[in-house]
Amino acid sequence: MQQDNNAHLAHGLKQRHLSMIALGGVIGAGLFVGSGAGIAAAGPSIVIAYVLSGLLVMLVMRMLGEMSAAHPASGSFSVHAERAIGPWAGFTVGWVFWVLLSVGVGAEAIGAAGVMTGWFPSTPDWMWAALFMVVFCVTNLTAVGNFGEFEFWFATLKVVAITLFLAIGVLAIAGLLPGTDAPGTANLTGHGGFLPNGFDGLIVGLLTSVFAYGGLETVTIAAAESENPVQGVAKAVRTAMWRIAIFYIGSMAVIVTLVPWNDPEVKEKGPYVAVLDYLQIPAAGRIMDVVVLIALLSAMNANIYGASRIAYSLAGRGEGPGILHRTWGRGVPRAAVLATAFFGFVTTLLSYWWPDTVFAWLLNIIGAAFLVVWIFIAVAELRTRRRLERDAPETLVVRMWLFPFLTWAALAGMAAILVLMAKEPDTRVQLISTGALTVALALIGYARQRRTRGGLKSPGARAS
């Protein structure tokens, strides 16, 4: 097995960059927009859904943090899977994640373009999508410090926005905001009760909330290019719990306490706009448009970065085209950046050419991709932890809680989510599509592994 090699990458990310990537990376567009569908389905019980999914994500991040602190690598979980399970596993999870992020780049460009055309109706969507693609492609081509600086300020703005929202919401709930009365528990127990649509609604809310957390893995990829990878990973993972609790669970609690869950605006305009409108905050819609735009651009920037580093790592380990491992100037894998941006741009074009066929298929194949990544992380951690305890216990700077019981509990939770996805018509297609992609990549990866091992056993191959 070839090792992930960070030697050619620049270590240009400072601790402040990594801290804000970890802090702001948890705040995505899915929280601001996608959570409306979850609230409409689950009602006030959406808080329980976010608690359950948040606990699962905390466990996954703890497992990933344990392995990444022990072996910082630009390929992150792909490298860990290869070390623990085999080259086929690293190949599979690495390319699944690359496809996920690359398609995400296109989807985020489309979303950001939609916000801009709302402000400038006479301009075409494709122009904004192309502009954003070029800006962040160039940003990622020049130096990793530029990516870090963009993410630092994007994350700062997102954190400020969500903090102000929570502060205003708490004041309103307490009846301390001028012009508002404390709502009490009227919205939590009224309008059909805490579980207005029963457990079926809670399940839909749970599935919605799980995928709102996607993207947290990027911080362990970025850590490999920071000044102190081990310290950076350890700090990011240890603060994951309160970040998830405050930003996600806290937001949901504020929203369903202040506005009725069945208010049409919650789904149509988004839950955050609905709350700000209820509190009579001037220009609430425009404010949230700015926040959503920042969240989309931040995710786009981070996805180009994360996908390019995964591709770089895969190529360096012989699991991808060798050109993707080349760096030119300033330690940037520019071929991998260009390949990711190109794929993202093609995805954007497909959304205009074949929105209901090819683009819809691409969205479906990434629908359950995060679960695939999390499953590989959990299995790799089960196998890696024993080896580290035996061979290098000093590298266990971050330890998974109650190992191995909570690792097995996390795997059981992921299995339960897969079962729930199979039962829901809207998510069943995503599960099948992602499953087909994963199986296809696993078969290719296993065939490559068998061929490589056969080549190593061949005298002629050794001589070459």
Helix-strand layout with pairing:
Layout: H1 15-24, H2 29-42, H3 46-70, H4 77-84, H5 87-119, H6 125-142, H7 144-173, H8 186-189, H9 198-212, H10 218-223, H11 229-238, H12 240-258, H13 264-268, H14 271-278, H15 284-316, H16 334-353, H17 358-365, H18 369-391, H19 405-423, H20 425-457, H21 459-463
Helix pairs in contact: 1-7, 1-11, 2-9, 3-9, 3-11, 3-12, 3-18, 3-19, 4-5, 4-18, 5-6, 5-15, 5-16, 5-18, 5-20, 6-7, 6-15, 6-16, 7-12, 7-15, 14-15, 15-16, 16-17, 17-20, 18-19, 19-20
Tell me what the structure shows:
This protein has 464 residues and is mainly α. The protein has a single domain (15-386, 393-452), classed as Up-down Bundle (Amino acid/polyamine transporter I). 75% of the residues lie in helices and 0% in strands. The chain is built from 21 helices and no strands. It has helices spanning 15-24, 29-42, 46-70, 77-84, 87-119, 125-142, 144-173, 186-189, 198-212, 218-223, 229-238, 240-258, 264-268, 271-278, 284-316, 334-353, 358-365, 369-391, 405-423, 425-457, 459-463. The chain is globular. 53% of the residues are buried. Mean pLDDT is 87; it is low at 455-464. The chain crosses the membrane at residues 21-41, 47-64, 85-106, 126-147, 159-179, 199-219, 240-261, 281-300, 335-354, 360-380, 401-422, 428-447. Its main location: membrane. It comes from Streptomyces monticola. It is found in: Membrane.
